[in-house]
Write a structure and sequence with these properties.
single chain; about 325 residues; mainly alpha; 12 helices; globular
C-alpha cells in the first residue's frame, strides 16, 4: 500500500472514530455537568456558552494517535514521528489538568499560568534530552542552501520559547466556535505538504490522522458549538505545531503557518503592556477576535476572516518551507 493510501486510511479512520465517539462523549459530559466556565477574557454575550461541554480536545488527541499507531505501526521506530506524537500527548496532559481543575472548582481558574509554564518547560526539556541524538540544532534559512547551525546551549532556549509561545498562542485563539480548530486544520495542511514533499512519510501520515480527528471535531464545534476543545486541545495543538517545526527544521515557516496564533498572542501582550505602562487600552479588546465582535461583526464572519488570513499565511509558510 503506498503512502497516500496509508495517509487517506489514517484520515478516514480518525475522522470516523472521533465523529461517532463524540456523540456519547458529549452526552456523558452533559450528564456529569462538565461544562465550559466563562473566561475572564470573554464578552458578556458569550456567557450563554457556559453550559457547553468542554474537553473535546481529548478525543482529537487520543483517538487520532491510536489510529496512527494502528495504521502505521512502523512509525514507533521513527524518531521524528515519536517527537511529534509525544509532544502532542504531553501538552494535552497539561491542558487536561487545567481543564480538570476548572471543572472541579467550577470557575475559570485552573492551573496557574506559572504552573502551566513550568510543566511545559519540563516537558520540552524531557523531549529534547530524550531525543537529543535525533534533534539537529539547525534552523533552515529560506532561499539559502543549508541552514543556521547552533550549539545546543543556544538552540535549547529558542526551542523552549517556540514550544511555550506556540502552545499559549493557540490557547489565546480558542475563543469562538470553530476558530482555533479551523485555523489549526489549515496550518496542518501546510505542514502536510512540507512533509510530503520532504519524503517524511511517517510524519505525513500522523498529520493526516490528526487532520481527520480535527475535521470530525469541527462538525460539532462549528457555530453554534456543541462542545469546546478546552486547554486539552489548544495546548496540545500548540505543542504539535512546535514539534512539527522542530523535526522538519521549518521554524521560520512556522512564523507564517502559525501566524494567526502569533497575531493573537502579540495583541494580548501589546494590550497588557500598554495598560501597564499607560493605564489604558490600545486595542478595543483582546484576544483580538473579540474586537471584531465589538465593532459589529458577527461571530461567524469573524471566524471566516481568520480562516482566509490563515490560508494566505499558510501558503506563504509553505513557499518558505519548500524554498
Amino acid at each position: 500500500m503506498n503512502l497516500l493510501l496509508y495517509a487517506a486510511l489514517g484520515l478516514i479512520v480518525s475522522f470516523l472514530l472521533v465523529f461517532f465517539v463524540m456523540i456519547p462523549y458529549i452526552a456523558a459530559l452533559k450528564r456529569h455537568n462538565i461544562n465550559q466556565e466563562v473566561s475572564e477574557y470573554a464578552l458578556d454575550e458569550y456567557k450563554a456558552k457556559a453550559k457547553t461541554p468542554i474537553m473535546g480536545g481529548l478525543l482529537f488527541v487520543v483517538l487520532p494517535v491510536i489510529a496512527f499507531l494502528i495504521v502505521d505501526i512502523n512509525s514507533i521506530h521513527d524518531a521524528s514521528a515519536m517527537i511529534v506524537l509525544i509532544s502532542y500527548v504531553l501538552f494535552c496532559l497539561v491542558g487536561f489538568l487545567d481543564d480538570f481543575l476548572i471543572i472541579q472548582r467550577r470557575d475559570n481558574e485552573g492551573l496557574s499560568p506559572k504552573t502551566k509554564l513550568i510543566m511545559e518547560f519540563i516537558f520540552v526539556l524531557f523531549i529534547f534530552f530524550v531525543f537529543r541524538n535525533y534533534i539537529y540544532c539547525q534552523i533552515d534559512v529560506p532561499f539559502i542552501n543549508g541552514g543556521l547551525t547552533l550549539h545546543w546551549l543556544l538552540f535549547l532556549p529558542l526551542l523552549i520559547l517556540m514550544y511555550l509561545g506556540e502552545a499559549n498562542a493557540v490557547n489565546f485563539t480558542d475563543g469562538m466556535d470553530g476558530l482555533c480548530a479551523g485555523v489549526s486544520f489549515i496550518g496542518l495542511i501546510g505542514f502536510a505538504v512540507i512533509c510530503y514533499k520532504g519524503n517524511m512519510d511517517h510524519l505525513f501520515i500522523l498529520i493526516l490522522c490528526i487532520m481527520g480527528g480535527l475535521l470530525a471535531y469541527l462538525h460539532y464545534n462549528h457555530f453554534p458549538a456543541k462542545i469546546f476543545m478546552g486547554d486539552s486541545g489548544s495546548l496540545a495543538l500548540g505543542g504539535l505545531f512546535a514539534a512539527l517545526a522542530l523535526v522538519t527544521g521549518k521554524e521560520i515557516a512556522l512564523l507564517f503557518i502559525g501566524g494567526v496564533f502569533l497575531l493573537e498572542m502579540f495583541c494580548v501582550c501589546l494590550q497588557l503592556s500598554w495598560v501597564k505602562l499607560f493605564g489604558k487600552r490600545i486595542l478595543p479588546y483582546t484576544p483580538i477576535h473579540y474586537a471584531f465582535v465589538i465593532k459589529g461583526h458577527k461571530e461567524t464572519s469573524v471566524v471566516r476572516y481568520f480562516y482566509i488570513l490563515a490560508v494566505i499565511l499558510t501558503v506563504i509558510g509553505v513557499i518558505i518551507g519548500l524554498s
